[in-house]
């Protein structure tokens, strides 16, 4: 995710000279320097890499796993600019948790982008902490707009958003995976099945955007009375997909709350 956001930032015209990153390995840091022109510090070669990366930074994006956020923030706290803005992309880590380990002058913002950021089609929810100014919120919006669309929310909605758009690409990929297997079971080769399914999903999504119609309306247009599609939809409704999606997203939300509690 950090790499996707970095790519979006640089493609928007932001100067690589003003970007510093931390990576685990020196090989990865060297690749970032050579290919992107950013300053890169490796934890493999220096235990001060994180502190070096944030030195003098106005905005710090923390892209580590949720379990490591507090430790990383504690590590860099006294190396931050007094008026720095810290943005986290970790699920379940609250603004209050981040603020508790940072100086009182440092503002924080929670964000939840999704993986289509890699192709500039992310949906990112952001929630400012109570220390963040309107100017800092505007900076966060501008940052994430380089990789897609942004929705500003109250923090109470961020975990819920993570279960829809944050995890959503995985749900879509899972559906594609299952429909592809169904195509293969019906005798199509893997390449044929991939073409049929991938392009059907892509075409349907583009039609949804271009038509300005609701998914339900478009579904009805495809579903002729007493036809093959109607029979397939009826079978799906017997499985109660609607309830399954509610239960699945509820399970994801419960996990997000567990991460916050821990």
TrEMBL record:
Q: Which residues form a coiled coil?
A: none
User: What is one GO cellular-component annotation here?
Assistant: cytoplasm
Q: Where in the cell is it found?
A: Cytoplasm
Indicate where this protein is primarily found: cytoplasm
Q: Matching InterPro entries, A to Z?
A: 6-PGluconate_DH-like_C_sf (IPR008927), NAD(P)-bd_dom_sf (IPR036291), P5C_Rdtase_cat_N (IPR028939), P5CR-like_CS (IPR053790), P5CR_dimer (IPR029036), Pyrroline-COOH_reductase (IPR000304)
Q: Which positions in this protein are listed as binding NADPH?
A: 50
Record keyword NADP present = yes
Report any one BP term from Gene Ontology: L-proline biosynthetic process
Q: Which GO terms describe its molecular function?
A: pyrroline-5-carboxylate reductase activity
Q: Which UniProt keywords apply?
A: Amino-acid biosynthesis, Cytoplasm, NADP, Oxidoreductase, Proline biosynthesis
Q: Which family does it belong to?
A: Belongs to the pyrroline-5-carboxylate reductase family.
Write down what this protein is called.
Answer: Pyrroline-5-carboxylate reductase
Q: Which organism is it from?
A: Candidatus Rhodoluna planktonica
The encoding gene: proC
